[in-house]
Amino acid sequence: MNIFKNISITAFSLLTVLVSCKNQDNTKASSTDGNPLYLDATASVNDRVSDLMSRMTLEDKVYQMCQYVGLEHMKHAENELTPEELEKNDALGFYPGVHSDSIGRLAEAGHVGSFLHVVTPEEANHLQRLAQKSPLKIPLLIGIDAIHGNGLVSGSTIYPSPISQAATFDDALIKEGSRQTALEMRANGMHWSFTPNIDVLRDPRWGRTGETYGEDPFLVGNMGVATINGLQSDDFSGTESVIACAKHLIAGSSSINGLNASPTDVSKRTLFEIFLPPYRRAVQEANVYSIMAAHNEVAGLPGHMDKFMMNDLMRDRWGFEGFYVSDWNDISRIDIWHHVAKDFKQSIEFSINAGMDMNMHGPIFDKLLIELVNEGKVDEARVDYACRKILEAKFKLGLFENPFIDVEKAKSTNFAKSHQENALEQARKAIVLQKNDKNILPLSTNGKSKTIFITGPNANNQTTLGDWVSPQPEENVVTMLEGITTIGEANGYSIDYFDAGDRSKEITDANISKAAQKAKQADLSVLVLGENSFRHDWGRKTTGENVDRATLQLSGNQLKLAKEIIALGKPVIVVYVSGSPIAEPWLENNVAAVLNTWESGAFAGQATAEILFGQVNPSGKLPLTIPRSVGQLQMVYNHKPTAYIHKYNTEKKVPLHPFGFGLSYTTFKFSEPKLSKTSFSGIDDEITATVEVTNTGKVAGDEVVQLYIHDEVSSYTRPVKELKAYKRVSLNPGETKTVSLTINAESLAMYDSAYNFVVEPGDFTIMTGNSSSDKSLKTTMLNVPQLIKLKN
Q1: 391 with 358: CB under 8 angstroms?
Q2: Which of 147, 275, 522, 662 could hold 621 in an S-S bridge, CB 3.0 to 4.6 Å?
C-alpha cells in the first residue's frame, strides 16, 4: 500500500514494538503526583485540560491526534481484503504487517487517542482497560458511524436513513430520534457519531444520496441542526450525550461525474449559496464539536488541505470551536490520490497546517508529525490546539471518571420501546405517495376472497434498513412481506409471495415467468422494487457509499419483471425501497399507485402496510426533485432563472416529481398567505406569514405547509424560489387551521460581491403551498426598503 512507501513493513513492525515500550518514560515527571488536578472531577474542564497538557510531552500530544480501527475490526478486515484492495476501500481497514496485538500495545503506552469501528461494549471496555495502563491514563474517544441509529451494532434501533428523515419535514421527531441514538451509543461505549452528513445533494447519481437530507440548503440545515442538538444536547457534557460530526467539508455531493471522491468544480458563490449554509448553522446554531473534511477536491484543492475552509472560514469567521477529523485515510491521499504532495509526510504537513486535528486512521502519522514539528515545518501550537480540543471532549463526556460501561445496560437500552416508537413514527411520516390512480389506495379493509401477490428484490429482506447498518436480528426487523401479510390477513386477504430474486441483479427470465403466472391468479400485485445500499452486501449493492449510479432507472431486470405483471391487466402497486431516487416514467404511468418508502428502517414493512391499508394517511414530502432521466441532470427546484430558457430535443424539461411533493388520501385547500406587515425594517425584524389550511376530504391527514421566497431583483442572480419555512399540520375532515410561518432577515439574505451576508432593498415574492411546483403555490409581496447587513 502506498502509504507505507517511506518505511518498510518490517521496519514499521519493529518500530511499533519499540515505541510501545520506549515512550513509557516520555511523560513529564509531574505525572507521578499523587493527586493531579486533571483527575479532580470538581475542577473546571479548562483547568483540568491545562494541567494535563502541562504533564504531556510533544509525543503525548501527537498521540491524542491518532485514531485506529478497533482490534476486532482489524482481524476481520485482514480476512476480507488484500493490501492492494485496501487503498480504495473506505469501510474495512487493517495495517499490513502489523498485528492487532501491536495496536493494543500502542494503546497501553498511551499512543492512541481514539478508536473507530468498535461495535461491542465488551471491546470498548477492553480498549479502555488498555488505555488505563498508560502513564497518564487518558481514556479513549470511541467513534462510530451511527448515521441513523447505532446501526453497526447488532440489536440497535434502526431509524429511517437521512433522506427518509428529511421526507418527514419534522425536525422535532428527528431530534428526538438522535437523542435516543446518543443513549444507545453511550450504553455501548461509543462517544462520537460521524453524522450528520449535511452535504447538499446536487446529483442523485451519487451513491451516498441516502445519507443526505436532500437538495435544499434550508431543509438540510434544519435536519442537521436537529440531529446535532439531539446527539450533543446542550454541550455534550455527561454520560448521556455524544459528539456529533458535520461532514463532509465540502461539496462532494456535486462531483463532476456523480462518483464518490471525484473532483468538484463549483464557483465560490455556489459554495456560499448552496453548500455552506448548513455548516454555518451547524457551527453557529448547534455548536457542532467536530467536522470531517471531504474526500474530494474543490477547484483543484483537496478538502484535507483547504485552509480557507477549515480555518479562515469555519474557525475565524464563523466561530467553530471544535476539532477536525480526516475522512478515511484521506491525509495520505493528498499524495497518493491527488498528487499535490510528494509523500505522506508532506501530506501531513499540508493538512495539519490547514487546520486538521485528528488522523483517521492508521500508523506512521504520529512519527512523521513529530518530525515535522521538530523540523519547524509544523508549529507546535497547532498540535497543542488539536490536543486541547480532543482532551476537552474527553473531560466533558465524563470519560476520566467513567471510561467503562455496564454491558447489561447496553442490552436494556438498545431497541428500547420508546426508541422503536420513534423509529416507526419516522417511517410513517417519511413515506411519499407519488401516484394514486382512481384512489386505489387505501386498499379495502374487506379483503375476503381476495389475493394480493407480492414479489420484488426488496420484498423480504433487510434492504429497508439502508446503508451504514450491519445485519440486525430478524425479530427486530419488519420486512415488507411481513408487514403486508400481518395487516392484509387481518383484513381478510390471502397473501401469495414469490421470490423472483433476492437482489435486483439476480432476477432471471425464468423467475419472471413464474412470478407472472402467480400474479395472474391474484387480484392485485404489490411489486417491491428499488435499490440496495445494505453495507454488508457489497457484492450486490446497487447504491450507497462508493457504489454510484450511471442511471436513475431500476437496476437489473426489475422493469422487465414489472412489465410482465402489468401486461396481465390487473392492478399493480409499486413500492420503492431505495435511498436514491428512481426515475421510471413509463412504470409510473402504467401502474395504479406508487409508494416511495425510501429506506424506512426497522419498521418499514409495518409503516408501509399501515399506509397501504389506510391505517395511516401518507404525508411524506420529497426532499429532492425526481427527474425523468439522467439526461435532465442537474435538475433541482432552486435553479437559477435561465436554467430552462430553452428545451431539450428528446426530453421534457419538467421533473417527474417536484421537490416538496407528496399526495394524501385526503385533499387540502390553502388560502393566500397573509403577512403581519408588508415592509421588512431591520436585522431583528420578523414577519409572520399566515395561511389557512382546510381538510376538504373525508379522512384525517397531515399536510406540510411550505413557504418559499424569490428576490425579484438582486445584484447577483438568485434561485427562482428558495424554501425558507415549513410546518406540519394535522387536520380532521372539514377542519381549518391557521398556520404561522416566520420570515426573518436570514430568510431574505444573500451574499454580496464581497461575500458579506446582506438583505438587499427591493421586493420579495412570498409563496406558500404544499410543494415547490408553481401550480401548488399562492403568493403575496414583501418589500425591504433599505440594505440590511447581517453578521457574517
Answers
A1: no
A2: 662
Instruction: Note the pLDDT tens digit of each residue in 310-344.
Output: 999 999 999 999 999 999 999 999 999 999 999 99
Residue 589 makes CB contacts below 8 A (sequence gap 6+) with none
The architecture (CATH level 2) of 431-632 comes to 3-Layer(aba) Sandwich (3.40)
Q: Report the candidate in 752, 739, 751, 731 with the shortest Cα–Cα distance to residue 778.
A: 739
| Domain at 668-789, CATH homologous superfamily | Immunoglobulins (2.60.40.10)
DSSP state of 308: I
Contact 237, 400 (CB under 8 A): no
Q: What is the pLDDT of residues 547-582, one digit of tens each?
A: 999 999 999 999 999 999 999 999 999 999 999 999
Pairing of strands 757-759, 788-789: antiparallel
User: Cis bond leading into 196, ω under 30°?
Assistant: yes
CB 531 within 8 A of CB 453: no
Q: Are 769 and 777 in contact (CB under 8 A)?
A: yes
Please give the grid coordinates belonging to residue 29: 515527571
Residues constituting the chain: 792
Owner of C-alpha cell 491524542: 64
How much is the pLDDT for 85?
64
Tell how far CA 453 is from the center of its chain.
Answer: 34
H, E, C per residue of 494-548:
EEEECCCCCCHHHCCHHHHHHHHHHHHCCCEEEEEEECCCCCCCHHHCCCCCCCC
In the block, cell 434550508 appears at 218
**Alpha-carbon distance 644 to 546, whole Å?**
32
The CATH number of 59-412, from 1.10.150.20, 3.20.20.300, 3.40.50.2300, 3.40.50.970, is 3.20.20.300
Are 438 and 621 within 8 A, CB to CB? no
Q: DSSP label at 214? A: -
771 is written with which cell numbers? Answer: 410543494
